Every structure is written in structure tokens, then in C-alpha cells.
Amino acid sequence: MTNLFLIKRSINVSILNWLLLLLTCPLTGQVQQKKHLKESDYIKWGTLNVKALSDDGNWASYQMSYENHLDTLFVQNTYTNKTFSFAGAQDGHFAGKNIFTFLQPESRLKILTLKIGKLKTIENVKRYELALDGKYILTFDQDYAKKSLLKIRNDKGEIRDSLNDISEYSLSSRKNALLYTSKVKNQIEVGIIRFQPYSRYIVSKDSIGKFCNLVWQNNAESAAFLHEKDSVSKEFALNYFRIADKKLFSFEYNTQVGLPKQLTVFNNTSLSISPDGKKVFFMEIKKKEPNVKKDSKTVEIWNGNDKWLFIDKQRIESKAGIPNLALWYPETNGYSRINNTELPNFMLTGQRDYAVLYDQNAYGLQSKYYDEVDYYLKDLKNDTQNLILQKQSCDPSQIGFEPLSNKILYYKEKNWWIFDPLQNTHINLTGKITTSWDNSTESSAPHQFMVYGNPGWSLNGNNILLYDAYDIWLTGTDGSVSIRLTEGREKNIVYRIASSEFNNSSQLSYNGRLQASFDMSKDLILSVENKQNHSTGYCVLNIHSGIKPIDYGFYDLSEIQRSPNNTYLYKKQTYDQAPWLEIKRKKDSKAAVLFASNKQQKNYLFGKSELLYYESVKGEKLKAALFFPADFDPLKKYPMVVHIYDNMSKEIHKYVNPSLLNSEGFNITNYTLNGYFVLLPDIQYELGNPGISALTSVTAAVETATKKGYVDKNKIGLFGHSFGAYETNFIISQSNLFAAAVSGAGVSDVIGAYFNISKNGVFQSDMWRYESQQFRIGKSLYDDKESYSRNSPILNAQNVKTPLLLWTGKNDRIIPWNQSISFYLALRKLRGRNIMLVYPNEDHSLEYPDNQIDLSNRMMQWFDYFLKDDLRPSWITKGVSYN
After folding, report:
1. Contact call for residues 741 and 726 (beta carbons, < 8 A)
2. Which residue, 105, 171, 166, is CA-closest to 136?
3. Residues paired with residue 146 on neighbouring β-strands, in sequence order
4. What residues in the chain have per-residue pLDDT under 70?
5. Rounded CA gap, 517 and 697, in Å?
6. Using an 8 Å Cβ cutoff, are 738 and 719 in contact?
7. Among 16, 217, 597, 609, who pairs with 575 as Cys (CB 3.0-4.6 Å)?
8. Which residues pair with 413 in a beta bridge?
9. Looking at 704-855, which runs of residues are DSSP E strands?
């Protein structure tokens, strides 16, 4: 694959014209002088996003969005470049080859006939759906969760049918049928509309309660829903409707199950119908006891041998406990509960004939995010269960289910295995392949053990797709054959299936990951990334004809769309060239530029990026992205800010709009516009030394950058957020290389943080972060106290000479704000120069625009003060009293 970066003639026309003009009149002064971009100009910049491509590839839709929310939706002909633009429009879709629909403010649906440019307006539409490939348009006059008037229209917008008081609906997977519930006079009803040929009939109706949780079988041969008969007692009946003979089956849960009254159907979880249409899965849960109030003064008993933390158990119980998965057989009216208190966690196999049960806390306290568990296989037909895997990681990326059978894929002992329940056999699929399927062999200590993954299965179910570090493999489910489909390792290129290929090929198993199926007889779009220089691209894989490039080069490609006739639309960008769209047809050798965003950039000075290479202490080659000042003069010296986290050089091609709205307060372009170099280095980690690893790698990167001769060595700043803030705190406790630093929401006391309970979704001890995740110490505190102490910023705070600006959100659920307080108090005690910004009502990253603007401004002022000798900000020189 060759680098196409220099051959895009159409992209460089404006640059070429500019150069010709410059050559013809070098002394006349007639060339337009580029301006310095001011903060008041930021509002001109927008973000480009690909939206859709018509079925014939003749029309493309994309959007420009702006911080002032004056967004514009575009529809453009890919041959003639004829363009329609719609301010404030959203939710645009192509309906066939000649219709484009979208919503505009004031509840208006627009239908655009593309060939003639005719635009029809339909009033009072809050949302809409397209059915049967756009031949029908369903419009609703209310938002979700509100009863709506549904109007069923043809693709010209003409009304074909209407229904009042629609409270819930579900389109079949092929969008050729609609399941709905509505109120007609004094009755509620569930009905089905089929679109080809058009028909409507009632499935069930009643005068009390409501119908809800509507769901289709995947092939639309049956449907299921709940009937809440009493809004006070919340008693539900399950209903199953078989399309072929229009037969309705009902299951009166509270009557027929015969369970104690404390259980009920859990109506917040979707129903699911097995592929064979014979089983309906639902959730049941304990009823909340009406008059029971918790005494906040009652003692909490935190037992040391509890398998999970009291606070997390309390969180679950406050949400009515852990729901059970239950099964109903409509044809026999049979019922069974699948999981239990001993094995509360569950997944279902592809054909829903078996369940995989486990207890996530079986082995008690483990210093891993994904604990080891024992997996049991439950045969749903005969209600038996057997142990199939012992001490297996419950990481969802290490287990998968073949959609067309009940086979189970899992990762163990450095290999991928498959278990066949029918044969009761375990087959090692990859034992004869010489490659690594996980990151444990990576030279830089991995921040967490992970497998490269199983993106999916072949459509016929005979093969599994697997990733190693670089390539994609196709392996037979019987272990008989394995084929490497790409040759990335030899070229230092990573191949992966493009995210767009997953849109219509995945199905969800209860509590399992999405299982995608791919038709391997057809072309498959792959994303491509060169790990050496971060070139990116897309290509097409055909297992018969091999790989053919779509586009590849020293830029960033993303958001690819493909039409059925193999027309490709995608976004490209570099740091110094705003994102643009290109269209490429299968028959064409070159792509054509369709649209270029932020054309006003040509009027302003703007920075550029360059990839630097440097060596770690181990002699391994590392990379850093260096961004130049917008008004760069090689004869001058400039200040530089170093932004650190983990591996940051991959940002080299990302275009960054100038903006003060940033959740971390740092924007690369803002700094390059303000006369700074910005350096984003990679860090080579050594197990047991996260802080020291950051220190040595960042120091080496800075030395490499300063050797170019453009950076003032005495005017270098350092910034990091979260883990990068920890690294910042540690680096300035070991080195005086930096004239100023900013640390946002970071750890300062490693030992204290080791004993924290994270409140980020799941309440669990943060010990795993240090023993097996990002902090990379690799052992418990009690097995390696020296490493914890050696890498703790607060224990080395007496060495800090660098002025430090700390910021934190008071409601931080990931890293408690007292970690920033601790470092502030330590430096205050030691008379170190520091200021702390505390944002009430903010979490780990800032959410509110006013706070984002405030932080962005203060961080820039902080660096200007120490790196540019701008002494104006009084909040730095004198402080600000509380008001």
C-alpha cells in the first residue's frame, strides 16, 4: 500500500494557486497577509460529521455543527456537487434513491425530492421513522414517552393511515412491520401494521391497565409484550403473539408461577424471544415493601470476609436488588427461573438453549476490574447445570457466543477455545498458530491485560474472526483451519474491521457482548493504521481476491460510509488542514473532494504538526507529536507546553478547532495560536515504576524537541489530567525541567488512593488500578511498599520547585478531590508556589460551559505568567478572597 498523501491533486489546488501567485509577485506586497486568529474568531469554526450516503451513492449528507448551536445539515450530489443546506436541521435520512427526510425546528418534517429539488413541509412532527426502505414515513406529534398521534405516510408525505394515543411502538428488524400500543376510546390495544402489502390488525385489547415492552422476534415471526393489569399492584401478564396463525398466548405471572407475593415482573428490562420462537425471556425482581423505611442510624456491618463491598451491595439493594432471568414457554405455558442467589450473573448462548451462569464475586476480593469466576452451563430444556470453566476471567471480551448455534468461544491459557455443549468438548482453535492474542508480551508494561479480540463470526457460523496485535485471522470452529487474512505484522500496520461494518450485523445476548456476523463472501471494509508514523486509511478485504486500498496516507481517516454499489464516503483531516470529505467509487482510481470545512482558516496563521522520534531508557524508539506555533519563525525561541497522559503521539493528525469549551481546560490549537509549541509524547512504562517511567520518557521527549533549536529551554510547561495529572505531580517532584505545571483531577498520594472506594458506576476498591491496571505497580502495597512509596508524589513533595496550578471537581467520582487537597496542603506546608481551583458540582471532567471557559482561561493565564512573563492576572499574584 503506497502513501497517497502527496497525490491528492484536488486537495492542493488552492495551495498551488497561492504558490503561483507568490512566485509571480514576490515584491509587490499584493499577497493577502494572514491574520492572527483571535478568541472572538473561534465561533467561526465548526465540526464536520458524515451522516449518510444514498443507496446509489449519488447523494451524500453531512453536518457542520457549531458551539453556538447554529448547525447546518447538507445534502450534496456526488457527481454534480449540487448542494442543499438546511440550518438547524437534524435526524436526516435517505428514503430510497430520490427522497431525503429531516426534522427542522418548530416541529417540522421536511421531505426533499432530490432530482427536482422540491421540498415539502409537514407540520407538527416531533419525531419520525422510515419503514420498508423509505416507502413509508411514520410521523409522531409528541416526544418519546408521551402519547402521540401516529400518521403513516407514503414517501411523498401523503397520509395513508393514522392512529391516536400511541404510547409505545417497535419496528421489526427489517422495518417491514410495526408493533404498537394505543388507546382507542376507552380501550387500550396492541396492534400490528404490515407494510407489504399494507394491513392492520389488533393483537389484544383491554379496558384497564396498559401494554408495554413491545419486542419482535429477530425474524419478525412473533412478538411479545407485557400487560400491566393494575397500576397499583404492578401485576403483569406476559403475552406472546405468533404471526403465522395469529395466535395469542398469555401468562398470568402472579397467578401461574405460584411464587410468594414478593416477586414481580421487572418491567425495566426488555423481553427477548429465542431464535426458534419457542421461548420468551423476561426479568423478575423483588417487590419493594411499601411501608418499610430504612433507619439511617442503623449500624452498617462491613464484614472482612464479605465477597463484595457493603456499599456496592447497598447500592444494588436500593435499586430493588438484582433481577432474576426467567423463561416462559408459550406453547406449553412452562416456566423456569434461570439464575439464582448462588449464581446471580448470566449470559445466554446464541440459540438461547443454554445459559452461562456465574458469581462475579465468587473468589472474593480480587485486584482486577474483571474478576475470575467459575462458569456453569445450564441446559434450559432439562434444567441441569455443569461446571465448564474454572477461574476464568469474566471480561466480556474473553467470551463469545456463535449466533447460529450454542457454541461458546473463550480465551484461556494464551489461546482461543470453543466449547460445544452438544458434544461436551473443548477445542483449542489457535494452539498451532504462532502469534500472541493478548497484550501481555508488549514491551511497555500494559496498563491492563486485554485480548485483541474476537470481532465476530462468519455468516454461516463455520468460522470465527480473531485479532492479534496486527492482523485478522479466520479460524474454523472445528479447529481444522486458520488463515491470516492480512499481512500487517510485516508492515507494522494494524488491520481491524471498520466500525461501520458492525451497524447492521450485531445482536445482543443478555448481559453478553454484541455478536456480529459477517458475510465473508462479500467485501469487508477494514481500517488501517501504521504504528510507526500513524498513517491511517481504509481498504477492502475480499477473501478470494485479497486486499484493495480505498485510501491511505499521512493523515487521519474516519467515519466511512458505503453504499450498496460500493461508493465510499469518508472524512479526512490533518492537524493543519480542517476536515474534508472525499467520495470514491469502485470504478474510479482516485477519490474526489466533496466538501471542505472551515475554509476561513486560509485567512489566518495556523500551526502545523511534526512527528518526532526519541529513545527510551531501554533504547526502544518512541514517538511524540510536536505542534508548531501559528506564526512560527525559525529564528525565534518559543515557550512550549508538554501535554502527557499515556501514548499521545497518535493525536498528530487530529484537527483541533480553537475553542474555550474543553472538559480538561486544554486545547492544542489555542496554544499554538498563542505562540506556543505543544508536545504530546509517548511514555514507555516499566512495571513497578509508573512515575519514574513517565519522568524518563517525558524528559527524553523534551530533550529531543529542544534539540531543534526553536524552544526556550527555560520556558517549558507541563500539563496532565487524571492519570496524566498523577504523572505531572510526580515529575515535578523529581525534576526542575519545567517552569510551570498544571495538574487536573490527579492522584498525589498513591498509598491513600490505593485504599479508595471508587464511586464510578460500581463501588469497588481502587486497589486493582495499582495492581493490574493503569498505575502498573503490579503488586499489592504489602508485597512492594517500596514501589508505592518511590512513585508517590506527596512523599516527594519537598522537592517540588515548579509552580503548580491544581484543579479538581468537588464531585469527582473517580479520583476524590481530597487527592488535590492533599497535594495543595503539602505544598502549602512546604511554602511551594501553588494555587488550587475547586469547581463545585463538577465531576472528574468539567461539564458546565462556564466552568470550561473559566478553566481554559486560567490555565492559559498560568502558563503565560510563568512562560511569557505576563504578570497581569491578579488571581495569580495576589489571590482572590472568598465572596
Report:
1. no
2. 171
3. none
4. 1-32, 231, 233, 258-261, 289-296, 315-321, 504-509, 511-514, 761-762, 879-883
5. 42
6. no
7. 609
8. none
9. 711-721, 740-744, 757-758, 764-765, 804-809, 834-839
